[in-house]
Fold this sequence. Notes:
Elements: E1 3-10, H1 17-31, E2 36-43, H2 44-50, H3 54-70, E3 79-82, H4 88-97, H5 102-106, H6 109-120, H7 131-134, H8 136-145, E4 151-153, H9 159-176, E5 185-187, H10 217-226, H11 245-252, H12 256-267, H13 272-298, H14 301-330, E6 355-360, E7 366-371, E8 377-381, H15 387-399, H16 402-405, E9 406-408, E10 413-417, E11 420-424, H17 435-448
Parallel strand pairs: 1-2, 2-3, 4-5
Antiparallel strand pairs: 6-7, 7-8, 8-11, 9-10, 10-11
Helix pairs in contact: 3-13, 4-8, 4-14, 8-9, 10-13, 11-13
Bound molecules: tryptophan (TRP).
Amino acid sequence: MNTRVLTGITTSGTPHLGNYAGAIRPAVQASAQPGVDAFFFMADYHALIKCDDPARVARSRLEIAATWLAVGLDHERVTFYRQSDIPEIPELTWLLNCVTAKGLMNRAHAYKASVDQNTEKGLEPDDGVTMGLFSYPVLMAADIVMFNANKVPVGRDQIQHLEMARDIAQRFNHLYGRDYFTLPEVVIEEDVATLPGLDGRKMSKSYNNTIPLFEGGASALRAAVMRIVTDSRAPGEPKDAENSHLYTIYRAFATHEQAAALRKQLEEGMGWGEAKQALYDHLENLLAPMREKYFDLMANPGRIEDILQAGAAKARKLATPFMQELRQAVGLRNLEAGSGAKAAQPKKEKGKGARFVSFRDEDGGFRFRLLAADGEELLLSQRFADPKEAGAAMRRLQAEPADVALQADGQGYAAMIDGVAVATAPTGAQDESGALLARARAALSSLSQE
Ligand code: TRP
């Protein structure tokens, strides 16, 4: 069986050079690997969460589709579609909503960030928070499990969403008694370039420091390159290439030899103006042929529409029968088919169901959480450098009597092994009454009886 690799691109902006180096180029390359079935889609339902400007949503869908096709995505081979062309996705989202703990969503970083900002400004915690934003991870889980993706390449900011997708899928499987869904694995491409922007911070629309990929043509590309911030060393003075983002950008698009050559020139005193011209020439050379295809496609939206419709048909060949099966699973059945005596009997949910979930944090460390049966977070571990250490700590905690392993401390409580706190109450949890500690102990002892 081929590995299914799936990823979504939120259609809320115009692709820039950083998107190209960080997401588009590696995805297109990965999709050409043998043994891979790639699913790439435009997350346009997700775009509605952030953007209520219809013209912008429409424009971004077009630009992003044209970009992916122009840079060489093989749409015959890859399943390339728009999320909103697959009605099974919102349908599945609802089924998943019905098994997702609200407590799990309360912990989502994006939601918590909004609450924190509101609190800082003295507003109501949920001011401006829509249900779309709140349940964003459920829609994303549906995107992924609809096609039983094995691997999901994303940026670090999406790691938590993948954990949640696994959690939700696992819960559905458990409730309905069968492994309907494959548990997806997150893929963080370690060696993919995070491109610096004009000012050296990560290239991002929100920092207004981007270099356009195609829009604006060669002149916009040139104008942006000329605005790259450099230090004030004059022509003739040796430059510190490694620490200049001009060189970092160049390197992301050059061979080793080309990069080494520019580096040497900079170290030998090449002026910044000349270096900018060299970067521009290099980028223009690379991008011009793709840009031509891009504008050609942009001028023929009907061609893009046809490609996307074909992609949707291909995706729905999988989604439609699978959704039928899922409707059966939850009891949304044809009445004539009987009350389901022959269908899979859902397992009765056990009274317990507390669990440890392990994950990698944003810095690549290994951690785990203890969750209650309803998904509430009861413990968050320290960071471990080695996943085996994290596993050993979980086993040790399960082996200890819960009232020894979990001890109240100043404001909350901690899980102790040999006098060292390996995990604590979740960040921000207030547990003055000790109720959360009692829940945590009950969860831990239910696990030790398994
Ligand atoms: N949330 C992702 C992002 O902003 C986009 C996305 C939506 C996605 N659904 C997905 C990515 C499913 C991977 C899989 O980057």
